[in-house]
Design goal:
307 residues; alpha/beta; TIM Barrel; two-stranded antiparallel sheet; 10 helices
């Protein structure tokens, strides 16, 4: 199956491929790995690449995309590229310069989707996580509706095709949706979502407002000491996922990914491992039954790996 055809239509008329490559990696991982993984993913059929200013690897990911355009594997319009506006840049006057910085790193003329990374503003500056002398994060006071207006201007300027949000709850989404003079509503909300945190209420809310839910952490989580609670169970060891995987002759990871696609969720699969990248694209080749879907729905425990 050709993943290029597997897309959902966004509320602004653009199309997003349902399976994306996540490109975040901890600092100790060499940036060159992002380059190699992205190139390989495009070669085997991935067309949706999810990255962010915060990941500090947009230069390498952009290089990978450009090299695959140069060698004729894809055209620019075949690739759906997402970047994110970081929390230290939420003041309206910083929005466009930050996107322009990402575009300069990528050496691309536009991104397909630009999203607010977190609904939390931090003090502007060179530090990604500004802290005071006691090690506490220094926040900033910014009205997200003003940030959103600056995002709309980026879309009007052609720097991004679509605009959306990430890590927003339904109340934060409502603030944008109910904003007087709203020009474009968020096309998506990217959140942690997996069988142990299935986000069914938020998914229903998003669907009712024509907002696509995009799942990160769909395989549980990379077990990163700074970000996640190490006492949580490992999702892919779950016996229910294991049994369904056995039945379909697939891996538990593919079952977890397929679950999202059948709920109408766009799913990101992060891997720098070629074997796993190749495996993940096979999620488009099989289907779960209604019983399988019900059984996986029953696994929800509201466990957040990313506290």
């Amino acid at each position: 199956m050709d993943p290029k055809c597997q897309c959902l239509q966004l509320s602004d008329g653009h199309f997003i491929p349902v399976l994306g490559l996540g490109t975040y990696a901890p600092e100790e991982v060499p940036k060159s790995e992002a380059l190699e993984a992205t190139k390989y993913a495009i070669e085997i059929g991935f067309r949706h690449i999810d990255c962010a200013y915060l990941y500090q690897n947009e230069e390498q990911v952009g290089q990978a995309i450009r090299s695959k355009i140069a060698d004729g594997t894809v055209r620019r319009e075949d690739i759906f590229y997402t970047s994110k506006l970081w929390s230290t840049c939420l003041r309206p006057e910083l929005v466009r310069p930050t996107l322009e910085k990402s575009l300069k790193n990528l050496q691309l003329d536009y991104v397909d989707l630009y999203i607010i990374h977190f609904p939390v503003a931090m003090k502007p500056g060179d530090e990604h996580f500004p802290k005071d002398e006691n090690g506490k994060v220094i926040f900033d006071t910014v009205d997200l509706c003003h940030t959103w207006e600056a995002m709309e201007k980026c879309k009007d300027a052609g720097l991004t095709k679509s605009i959306g949000v990430s890590n927003f709850n339904h109340k934060q989404l409502e603030r944008i949706l109910n904003k007087p003079g709203l020009k474009y509503k968020p096309v998506c909300n990217q959140v942690e979502c997996h069988p142990y945190l299935n986000q069914s209420k938020l998914l229903d809310f998003c669907k009712s407002n024509d907002i696509v839910l995009v799942a990160f952490g769909a395989l549980g989580s990379q077990r990163l000491k700074d970000w996640m609670n190490p006492s949580h169970p490992v999702l892919l060891d779950d016996p229910v996922l294991g049994a369904i995987a056995k039945k379909h002759k697939q891996t538990p990871a593919l079952i977890a990914l397929r679950y999202q696609l059948q709920r109408g969720v766009v799913v990101l699969a992060k891997s720098y491992n070629k074997r796993r990248i190749k495996e993940n694209i096979q999620v488009l080749d099989f289907e779960l039954t209604t019983e399988d879907m019900k059984a996986i729905d029953g696994l929800n425990r509201n466990i957040r790996y990313y506290d």
